[in-house]
């Protein structure tokens, strides 16, 4: 009886040791390596391009990374704290987007890769958390949809493989650095005067703010409107005192710039 008890105890300890070892592994190390090798900074670092052609020729490392993400069970995912969950989902979205592009490469735009009646974002080609899902599932249901994260800065972290997108970050997102990484991405995007700027009595924003305006009205860090978000990043937008006053009293006009869906490819 005592031997059976000891064997059972050893099995339990072995299981928990294995689970602990898995959670202590750097799950996103391969993604870090891919990004470091294939992301190229442009426009003074405000934007990036990606070398899809080079990765398409040697996709094995990306496939190994995606397989490691697919191996994470829903039960294991739910045991993680929120920052680890969000970092996982952001990395998964970006990495599976890159996979989708190299599957169809060469291509001029991600929008050219969908079907006649469906977009590439609605294609269910991703094995994740025990389901087969789409990019839309990851972004709109898991990241944005349930109110768990209430984090509008994710819009500067997910990358849709287009010139109009915020930069694809050169490093993987990680739980312990997530707030700093999201803030750096936001500052990077807001200070890009080709995407967001004020001129005269008009504040010109990326179309991202038009599409997802509700996400910036949910009380994140006391922000309940696009005007308040603009004030939070007034230095990055290089606003003068008159424009700041106009934003405070919401007398400045909001206009949204045309989005560039061209592929963010180094060969373009």
From TrEMBL:
Keyword Signal: yes
All residue ranges annotated as the DUF547 domain in the record: 78-189
Signal peptide (UniProt feature, chain positions): 1-21
Keywords of this entry: Plasmid, Signal
One Pfam family hit: DUF547
Highest taxon of source: Bacteria
Protein known as: DUF547 domain-containing protein
Organism: Catenovulum adriaticum
């Amino acid at each position: 009886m005592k031997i059976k008890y000891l064997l059972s105890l050893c099995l339990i300890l072995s299981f928990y040791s294995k689970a602990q070892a898995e959670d202590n592994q750097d799950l996103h190390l391969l993604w870090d390596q891919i990004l470091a090798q294939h992301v190229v900074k442009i426009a003074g670092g405000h934007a990036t391009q990606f070398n899809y052609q080079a990765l398409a020729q040697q996709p094995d490392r990306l496939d190994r990374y995606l397989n490691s993400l697919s191996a994470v069970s829903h039960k294991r995912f739910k045991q993680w704290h929120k920052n680890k969950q969000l970092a996982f989902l952001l990395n998964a979205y970006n990495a599976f987007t890159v996979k989708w592009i190299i599957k169809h490469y060469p291509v001029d735009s991600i929008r050219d890769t969908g079907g006649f009646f469906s977009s590439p974002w609605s294609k269910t080609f991703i094995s994740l958390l025990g389901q087969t899902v789409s990019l839309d599932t990851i972004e709109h249901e898991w990241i944005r949809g349930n109110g768990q994260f209430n984090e509008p800065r994710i819009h500067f972290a997910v990358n849709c493989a287009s010139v109009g997108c915020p930069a694809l970050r050169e490093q993987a997102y990680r739980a312990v650095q997530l707030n700093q990484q999201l803030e750096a991405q936001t500052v990077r995007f807001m200070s890009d005067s080709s995407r967001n700027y004020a001129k005269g009595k008009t504040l010109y924003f990326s179309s991202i703010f038009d599409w997802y305006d509700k996400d910036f009205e949910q009380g994140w860090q006391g922000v309940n409107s696009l005007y308040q978000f603009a004030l939070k990043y007034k230095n990055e937008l290089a606003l003068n005192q008159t424009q700041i006053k106009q934003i405070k009293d919401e007398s400045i006009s909001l206009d949204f710039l045309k989005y560039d869906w061209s592929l963010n490819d180094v060969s373009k």
